[in-house]
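User: Before I run my own analysis I want an independent prediction to cross-check against. Here's the chain; please return only the structure tokens and, at the end, one sentence I can use as a sanity check.
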Amino acid sequence: MARNVDLATLRLMVRRRADIEDDPFHSPEEILDYINESIAELYGKLVLARGDEYYATAINGITVGGTRTVGLPANFFKILGVRWQFTPTRRIKLLRMDFQKFMGLDNSTVLGWTDWSNVYYMTQQANAVFWPTPRGAHNITIWYIPAAPALLNPGDNFDGINGWERFVVLHAVRLVKMKREESTAIVDAGIQDIEAKIDSLSGTRDDGQPSHVIDMEPVNVYADGYNWW
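Assistant: Structure tokens:
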């Protein structure tokens, strides 16, 4: 369940914590920058602490024959996986490859995508790159983590999930105090306490279904969970 806090509330919380409620030295735009910087910092920590399932979203795409890339969305941060809609009732999970594997693959010996051989993907800048190069149009679904949201208007909401907005506030307060050349010791202690909680709790949002080892080497992996070769 989301725990939304709007920008106006976050800005007020930062000013109160930093004891600068009526201080014109720090403009609303400056506090906004600190808040968005802090949201990005928290977001990265939550994703690294296995928050993939919570933030995951998907887009559909279509390959172009003779082109090995499909563009990623503008808000792309991290890819989770790609599935190929081989038929209306049959989906195939593509296999992830790193750059060294990509360099060792020979595209000239493979005739496009088939359901009896491996199809790989990796990310490169703003694109998903596939091997072998598709020879036609294939429907795919790309699961990914979007980039951290940036707030702009007073009514824009940030999802604190489980009270993590406190990190955003404290981190922003720390930036205020650094500019004012004030001690950050108390704020740092609060931030460290929240970081410890994130590390221990954010990866267990679904305690009833823990992560398990998945065999990544079969010739083909189907979305129904069975390997047919």
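Sanity check: Helices lie at 7-18, 28-48, 52-55, 99-103, 165-179, 185-201.
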